[in-house]
C-alpha cells in the first residue's frame, strides 16, 4: 500500500526558500491527487497546494506566486518549492491523498524567522 513521507523542512529567514519532498512507496499514480497541508501551533490544519496525475495544480491564495508543487514520476516524489517565505508560513507541513486522506504522518517543520 502506498505511503507518503515528508522531508526537507528547516529554519530559514524571511524571504528565503525551502524545497519540501513527499516520497511515495509504490507508484505515485496509485493516488489520483496529492496535496500539501500545513498546521501552525494552536491552529487547524490548512490546505496549501495539490497536484493530480494529469499535472493540474491548485494553490491556496496566500501562497500563489510563491510556492510551486510538482511531480517527479521517476523518483516517486511530489515536491513543494517554497520561495519568498514569510513568518506566517511557519508550520508543520504534511502531504496526503487530497480526496481520501490516510493517516497523517510526522510532517516536516518549516520555521521562518529572523
Summary keywords:
mainly beta, 48% strand, four-stranded antiparallel beta sheet
Report on this structure.
By secondary structure, this protein is an all-beta fold. It contains no helices and ten strands. The strands form two sheets. It has a six-stranded mixed beta sheet with strand order 2-10-9-4-5-6, with no helix packed on it. The protein has a four-stranded antiparallel beta sheet with strand order 1-3-8-7, with no helix packed on it. A hairpin with a 4-residue loop joins strand 7 and strand 8 (77-82). The protein is globular.
| Overall spatial form | globular
Helix content: under 10%
Order of secondary-structure elements: EEEEEEEEEE
Q: What fraction of the residues are assigned to beta strands by DSSP? A: over 45%
Derived structural class: mainly beta
Count all strands and give the number: 10
Q: What is the gyration radius calculated from CA atoms?
A: 13 Å
The number of helical elements comes to 0
Mean pLDDT, as a whole number?
95
Largest sheet: 6 strands, mixed
Strand order of the largest sheet: 2-10-9-4-5-6
Distance between the termini: 41 Å
Query: Would you identify the regions where 5 or more consecutive residues have pLDDT less than 50?
Result: none
Amino acid at each position: 500500500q502506498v505511503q507518503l513521507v515528508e522531508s526537507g523542512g528547516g529554519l530559514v529567514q524571511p524571504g528565503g526558500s525551502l524545497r519540501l519532498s513527499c516520497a511515495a512507496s509504490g507508484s505515485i499514480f496509485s493516488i489520483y491527487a496529492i496535496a500539501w497541508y500545513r498546521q501552525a501551533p494552536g491552529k487547524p490544519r490548512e490546505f496549501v497546494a495539490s497536484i493530480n496525475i494529469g499535472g493540474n495544480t491548485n494553490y491556496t491564495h496566500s501562497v500563489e506566486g510563491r510556492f510551486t508543487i510538482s511531480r517527479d514520476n521517476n523518483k516517486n516524489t511530489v515536491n513543494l518549492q517554497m520561495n519568498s517565505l514569510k513568518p506566517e508560513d511557519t508550520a508543520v507541513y504534511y502531504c496526503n491523498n487530497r480526496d481520501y486522506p490516510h493517516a497523517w504522518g510526522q510532517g516536516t517543520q518549516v520555521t521562518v524567522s529572523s
